[in-house]
Amino acid sequence: MGRYVEQDQALDVKLLREILRTYEVKLKSTALNAVRRRKFYMCGFVFVILFCKALRGCEVFLTESTSLCKMIDKGRMYVDPHVVVPLMGRFKGETSKQNVLVMLTAISNYNYGN
Hints:
This protein is an alpha+beta fold. The chain has one domain (13-105).
């Protein structure tokens, strides 16, 4: 009650960059314990994946972490660097329990207004 809610509001790239800058500053702190550090990395991952792949809400939580950790560096070796994000479960109408591999470009040519 009394709150203004606007669903499906897009995350502006400038806001995403500011969030990631804040996380970067906090991650440089030596006083940060391992559990808190991991949470910052996980939240940053969620924001980036949701933004870059235009996923909606809970789809990002279908990310299969074991496969992600195994694949995280593989895309760096290609001419067109990319990041492989494996999603598991019923995703976008898929009926099998196999991973759906989502590819994200590692570098964008788009100028976001530094």
